[in-house]
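anyone seen this seq b4? input:
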Amino acid sequence: MTVFEMIEAQQKGREDTTIFMVGEQLKDICRADPACAVIVAEDLSQKAMSIEACEKKIKEHADKLKNEKKLRAVGISPQKAEEIIRKFYGLPERTNREAQTATPNNATQTGGGLLSLEDLLGI
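predicted toks r here
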């Protein structure tokens, strides 16, 4: 079973939930860095390392912020969620190359099929 199949098995029936979204972000990390996929595949075989357990870590962070700042609700940015996911699974930090290919401004240079507004305006 591939790491993607393992993630999808844990996502099944949880569409439109934060657990599902953690799985999607985890798949993106594994696609960008195959070395991470190996680590995640090993971890996902343990119940304590499920995407649900990882989602709980992100929720704990959100709850902490909510209480500290005395807010009704908080949101976690994709970057912060990725940081928590990487820490939870013991994954290395995102490389400069990964960060560059993930930015929308590089999409036209890397053949990502996206255009920036600057491209259309000729800036």
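The two ends are 47 Å apart (CA to CA). The CA atoms of residues 18 and 55 lie 7 Å apart. kinda curious what u guys think
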